Predict the 3D structure of the following.
Amino acid sequence: MKILLAASEVVPFAKTGGLADVAGALPLALEDLGQEVIIAMPYYKVIQNSKFKIQKLKADVSYAIIGRNIKVYFIENNTYFNRDGLYGDKTGDYNDNLDRFSFYCKKTLQLLKEINFKADIIHCHDWQSALIPLYLKAHYADDPFFKDIKTVLTVHNIGYQGLFPAQEFSKLGLDWKLFSMQGLEFYGQINILKGGMVFSDIINTVSPTYSKEIKTKEFGFGLEGVLNQRNDSVFGVLNGLDYSVWNPDNDRFIAKNYSCGNLEDKYKNKADLQKICNLPQKANIPLFGIVSRLAEQKGFDLLSFGIDKICKMNLQLVILGTGDLKYHVLLENMVKKYPKVISLHLKFDDGLAHKIYAGSDIFLMPSKYEPCGLGQMISLRYGTIPLVFKTGGLADTVTEDNGFVFDVYKKEALIKTMNKAINAFGKKRNWKELILRAMQYNFSWVESAKKYIELYVKAKS
Ligand code: ADP
């Protein structure tokens, strides 16, 4: 099949979150499975200034190659994309984001014809590329070149919808008829993601459980009605993990490599982490690790309600992350109060993240909602037992067989489950068996890519 993957960020060129990881890894896995894939993304300043080998195709399109022969096309427009941020700066989102991403979507469709890539599938991701299914139907319905193209829209987090004031609608170049309940209108505003959901052939999200949750009022952020109307076209394919990056056996960031065969070496990483973090170097105290955005979505409301109690438990806690200022302040105060218990790192630090995954005993991820989540999959591979709230992708990957799960979103339930984990940690033989089981779990991209191909086939049928 010929597939165009349209995403506003793609590893290794530009990244602000998990979307870029998926958009970078899925095409490689699809190529390995014999599919013909190209990618289209905006030509941001960070790419223009990068070390990648980029070639000019025409005045306003350049390209690079990833994998064996996947062309990544960069849509150029200096006014729109030659800026420091992808979507905004520290004052907030850029106020011309509708112009920027509608331009990108229109140009992406034009590009297909210019390079004569008669795609079977256009796979869009999140609101930034969600206008493509609309433009396809609104502008190209009678064009034989486009007539057989089907669209799949993957939603990575339904909390981000691309909302704009109604006055901007004329900028889209679409018939005002589409500004309706059955189209892009959403409580008087333009909702780009909604438009994409209405017009794409298949809607997908990044885990089976999240695909069910977003059809409910609690998780749907107002779009549950649209999803229920399209119930038969909504799917959930779990993201994969890139095991070439996340593998304790050859991870160059960690103090000592290890695998199932030499688990004792995992504890050298624990000692190393305790040292770096200025925590007492004790092997028999359970070390909980967190690598996360400091946001309510990630469970920091629960953690902050319970933190004083948690710090009095028999544990150590290493936290790496940045996010809401209120959590920065709260955690800094906790470090002052319990310096031998908490070690706090308010930054983005890939190397330290690897050390935390390797050196901790338990990985804490009590997300309130979690479309897929990577942290729990990484920690499983490192034999660091995940403790999660039962939601979204966490519910699909962590069970009592490989971790600890609580299913009532209350601080009491979190603390009770942490106590359960601490007790289990004390039973050395069982704990070792648990680690070995956890390390066997495999969430590779190959399996996810096969599921995506099934979705593409479904879209074509
Ligand atoms: P998100 O909702 O933030 O995308 P995921 O669990 O899907 O959450 O992925 C987050 C990824 O970012 C993981 O690989 C995690 O290790 C990494 N990460 C998050 N915060 C930091 C940080 N402060 N430093 C280094 N890596 C981080």
Observations:
- The longest helix spans residues 97-114.
- The chain has 17 helices and 20 strands.
